[in-house]
Specification:
single chain, 91 residues, alpha+beta, five-stranded antiparallel beta sheet, 3 helices, 26% strand, DUF7710, DUF7710 domain-containing protein
Length: 91
């Protein structure tokens, strides 16, 4: 069963430009097109906010942490992710 997908967000983009099951396919696409952005592993059928709490990466402590505005913008540095510049992995 597939539990996660790789999502590519280009630099300064408002929306994702690629969704991949296989990281190597994503890497090749990014390299072929000389893209700059971030490739992030996302859980399926679960929001990142809920995933981070379940994994112990985040613990809401204030009322603001439970607000829709906070949850809809939530991302986690604990998600596996890679930065690319002009198609190359930026270490």
């Amino acid at each position: 069963m597939i539990e996660s997908v790789w999502v590519f967000n280009g630099a300064n983009a408002n929306f994702s430009s690629g969704i991949f099951l296989d990281k190597s396919v994503a890497d090749n696409w990014i390299k072929k097109n000389n893209l700059t952005g971030i490739l992030t592993l996302y859980p399926l059928n679960k929001g990142v906010y809920d995933w981070a709490i379940e994994q112990g990466f985040f613990s809401p402590h204030t009322d603001a942490h439970f607000s829709p505005i906070f949850i809809q913008k939530f991302t986690s540095a604990s998600q596996e992710h890679y930065h690319y510049v002009d198609g190359l992995l930026d270490n």
